[in-house]
Amino acid sequence: MQKVLFKEVAKHKYMYLLVAPVLVYYILFAYLPMYGIVLAFKDFDYSKGITGSPWVGLKHFQEVIQYSDFWNAFNNTLIISLGRLIFEFPAPIILALLLNEVTRYRLKKFFQTVFTFPHFLSWVILGGIITNFLGDSGVFNQLLVSIGLEKRNLLVEPSSFRYLLFLTDTWREIGWGAILYLAAIAGINPELYEAAHVDGANRFQQLKAVTWPSIRYTASILFILAVGNAMNGGFDQIFNLYNSVVYDVADILDTYVYRYTFITGDSFSISTAVGLIKSIINFALLIGANYLVRYLGEEGVT
């Protein structure tokens, strides 16, 4: 058995060499750090290290669920993640379908470039741009004043901050997300469109009968991944845009852990417990989304 295994590895050695860097990356940065999960069940002591710190069982889990700030961050994470699924997830699909209707090659590439470019800018840069744009003397408020309206600072308005998150993240990611759907559309057999056209189908009917069924599997897989990533909430974006005025509507579990660990410096064990709770919920959401997709007739990820 081992000889057969080694023979197969030797036969496909170049394929394994291509995969090796990815495996090393995930082992070093995804699997080995999982050892730190034990901090959630210990009273971490810097002098004793992880292995020497005493076990306390579920003490930190029982403690964290009594904090009102934790539940506020938990609820905000759910609300913001749900909003992202409702407002942001369909946006790349719609853009890909619209770009597919652009017949002029150069114009299509121009729009793809314009929509994709923001993805390559970090939220540190985009946060500065958005802050300046929406600031008291920014372009947004100058336009409001020029038409006779009062100035508004959307970054400190709890009622509008979440919608600002959805809008800016859609602007940044819509082009990048559309690439996957455009690739799926590019793989559709042109004869299907020709047959639909012969049958008298207009462009919208071709979209419903040919294009959408062909990219539905891609959409279902990305939906599963999006739901499985829901509890992450979007730390980079929120951290660079929020402030203490909007904590009640913008503080998510990741920003809560950051402040609790690195600003107040209270307990690594509490922070690890929160992170473990988040990971367990993400896993459950992933399984649930996969089950839902398969129940609706798609293949899912398993």
From TrEMBL:
Annotated keywords: Cell membrane, Membrane, Sugar transport, Transmembrane, Transmembrane helix, Transport
Protein known as: Putative multiple-sugar transport system permease YteP
PANTHER family: BLL4140 PROTEIN (PTHR43227)
Domain ABC transmembrane type-1: 74-289
Membrane-related topology note: Multi-pass membrane protein
Keyword Transmembrane helix tagged: yes
Keyword Transmembrane recorded: yes
CDD domains associated with the record: TM_PBP2
Family in the record: Belongs to the binding-protein-dependent transport system permease family.
Primary location class: membrane
Pfam family, one: BPD_transp_1
InterPro entries: MetI-like (IPR000515), MetI-like_sf (IPR035906), UgpAE/MalFG_permease (IPR050809)
Bilayer-crossing regions: 14-38, 78-98, 110-134, 174-193, 214-235, 268-293
One Gene Ontology term from the biological process aspect of the record: transmembrane transport
Species for this entry: Cohnella abietis
Subcellular localization: Cell membrane
Protein's gene: yteP_1
Origin superkingdom: Bacteria
GO cellular component, one term: plasma membrane
